[in-house]
Amino acid sequence: MARRTYFDHNATTAARREVVEAMLPFFRERFGNASSIHLFGQENREAVDAARAHVASLVGGEPEEIIFTSGGTESDNLAIRGAARARRRASKADRIVTSAIEHPAVLKTCEDLGRDEGFRVTYVPCDRDGVVRLDELERALSPATALVTVMLANNETGVIQPIREIAALARRHGIPVHTDAVQGAGKIPVDAGDLGVDLLSIAGHKFYGPKGIGALYVRRGTPIEAISTGGSHECGLRPGTENIPGIVGLGEAARISKRELPREMEHIRALRDRLERSVLERVPDVSIAGAGALRVPNTSNMLVGRVEGEAVTLNLSMSGFAVSSGSACASGASEPSYVLLALGFDGAASQGGIRISLGFANTGEEVDAFLEIFPRVVERLRSLSPIR
Amino acid sequence: MARRTYFDHNATTAARREVVEAMLPFFRERFGNASSIHLFGQENREAVDAARAHVASLVGGEPEEIIFTSGGTESDNLAIRGAARARRRASKADRIVTSAIEHPAVLKTCEDLGRDEGFRVTYVPCDRDGVVRLDELERALSPATALVTVMLANNETGVIQPIREIAALARRHGIPVHTDAVQGAGKIPVDAGDLGVDLLSIAGHKFYGPKGIGALYVRRGTPIEAISTGGSHECGLRPGTENIPGIVGLGEAARISKRELPREMEHIRALRDRLERSVLERVPDVSIAGAGALRVPNTSNMLVGRVEGEAVTLNLSMSGFAVSSGSACASGASEPSYVLLALGFDGAASQGGIRISLGFANTGEEVDAFLEIFPRVVERLRSLSPIR
Questions:
Q1: Which residues contact B23 (CB under 8 A, 6 or more apart)?
Q2: Residue among A72, A230, A322 minimizing CB distance to B104
Q3: Backbone φ/ψ region at B212: left (φ over 0), alpha (ψ -120 to 50), beta
Q4: Which of B38, B37, B36, B64 is nearest to B49 (CA)?
Q5: How many cross-chain Cβ pairs, A to B, lie less than 8 Å apart?
Q6: Strand partners, B147
Q7: Which residues share a beta bridge with B202?
Q8: Nearest Cβ partner of A212 from B8, B17, B243?
Q9: Which chain B residue shows the shortest CA-CA distance from A18?
Q10: In chain A, what residues touch B324 (CB-CB under 8 Å)?
């Protein structure tokens, strides 16, 4: 088979070699249950504590503000359900303010709280560049707002949202703020203190850590309820035997990510910018979603006119290139991306969205090879298309 | 340091060598997101499907009846919350029937549904041997019962519960039945069809699989709602990027467990029975919880008079032996075990409970070494104890 090139790092990443090496001893040698009082258990507490410190450092929190979960979706569910319920119990506030471009883990959770638990949800629109509108968000806030939840970086466009400004607006009303930073961590510096948020979700596998592990930062003193019940693990907020290999792997991914971020960002941004420039030069009728906004350096969402994104994705896959149309979480569905629709693109244009998301291991040669193939794929598909 | 001996397999187990080997390629080489439509994603679907088939085979279900979760606690929460809510929505039934000796993942979930969602919970007592009383359970059932949830084997005593009989009683009323089989899978044959249950929880790390992964068997047609929201993974019942290494590891653990079970059960039972006989011969004032009942072959819960279980556990740990007082999930708390109290032991007796839980790698030599140490530890602690 031909060489394969992975340009879909917003879907998932390969764990770093050091991450897997750090995890390995905890499957068979140091396998104890961290809740056991004997040596086999206690010797693992230290490893869990160290990982917690690394994760805290990555997101600008304290170790005791980190709750380990099974991933980004669970972190989002815990943050939104847990904080909205806690606040309503204390203050009767029953409104949730979110944006129209959130990941399904946030959108569907808000919808569910609206449908099943009587919360009223406001979906703030974004502008043409995919930035959540601050003026609309501000208008949506009131003393009845239980929670604001807006993502740090959009998974489809990479557009960075004005979370610091959103948190400052919410703080005037004393409203807690959650941000889904799953697509931010490991791509840009993330500092919960600096952003001013109370809750922040991350997922290991999006920044070269293992799948099946994530974390929720919970600022000290933030009212929040557990959403599942069992043992008293993780300060009573997340029951279940600790996934020690996963926690250790997440910690190692966080440690390395923090150290390497400046170098990796620069490398990835240079590749992404060259790729975009070259595509725009070589392929007519392409526009870049969110090009006018701040974006994470690895993501490019190209709207390619007169083709279906899914057809492009499948053709590129046959040539050995992995890219995405829409997000992996919505794949299978060939509906136009709700994120691109929210940016104001029409249904036809939104179906032409190709998401390329680079990683630190990608090379200039891979970008060059892509630039050879991509225009040909688009041209062939356009020649077959009934839309001219 | 002295040789260490692990007799706490009900808390957690070391993953089998084959399990770790099966997982390894999925961290870095085959790392794709199983929801991606490109090659990197699609090549992993097959691995997930194979693992699902192995897990289904272990619990006597069909592959499409297996939902992967992050572990036993999540499986229990999904089963109980998901099925009780679905049934109440359909039929107004609002009673949950469970037992007094369930794991906290079940007990606290039922309590929570009682406190926060208006369900009425009945806790059926057990007899002196730790077997849930069928007569009391039958009396508790009515058309208003939304769900019955009783564990397959108790984590502290190893006592096997009459799930087949319980399911038959429930079926007369058309009530769905969940069993927490976390302490049964890998220790005794488990067959959801034969048991007649609709929902059945397992956790990988209790039978030599990885931590952070579990499964819920959901019989085809069982009404159940998701308890978290996001992507449409796992038939819409459990959102979040699939933990592929964990799933593959769970599958491999299930495959080997099914194959090795008869041989391993016999080996472990012989060790356990010899250990119990010898302790009863050598140490006065010891009784075995659940000795008159059917038990999983690996577990012995010894009530040692005139000592505190936690002191025995710590002393044994210093001698290199890992055992448990109470369950790992309740550790830290030096309260008497609620399970032993439910068997009718008084508070003082219940504090003397020592749980020994053996695994396939334990040897006769380890049991011999334990039998040298254990009577001395008990004697010394008794000589220091104010209770004579």
A1: A27, B210, B245, B246, B248, B249, B252
A2: A230
A3: left
A4: B64
A5: 259
A6: B96
A7: B215
A8: B243
A9: B28
A10: 36, 38
Mean pLDDT by runs of 10 across the 388 residues of chain A is 86 98 96 88 92 98 98 98 97 97 98 97 98 98 97 98 98 97 98 98 98 98 97 93 98 98 98 98 97 98 93 94 74 76 92 95 98 97 77
- The CATH superfamily label for domain A5-12+261-384 reads Aspartate Aminotransferase, domain 1 (3.90.1150.10)
Residues 6+ apart with CB under 8 A from A372: none
Non-local CB neighbours of B270 within 8 Å, separated by 6+ positions:
none
Strands B299-304 and B286-288: antiparallel
- CB neighbour list of residue A346: distance below 8 Å, 6 or more residues apart: none
Q: Kindly determine whether residue B73 and residue A239, on different chains, have CB atoms separated by under 8 Å.
A: yes
Q: Of A74-83, B346-355, B359-368, where does mean pLDDT reach its minimum?
A: B346-355
- Yes or no, beta carbons of B243 and A104 under 8 Å apart: no
The encoded tokens of residue A24 equal 């390995």
Structure tokens at A252: 């190692």
Residue of A213, A240, A247 whose CA lies nearest to A22: A247
- Cβ neighbours of A108 in B, within 8 Å: 229-230, 239
Return the structure tokens found at A134: 């601050």
Active site annotation includes A126 = no
Q: Which CATH number fits domain A17-256: 3.40.50.10540, 3.40.640.10, 3.40.50.720, 3.90.1150.100?
A: 3.40.640.10
**Which ipTM score applies to this complex?**
0.96
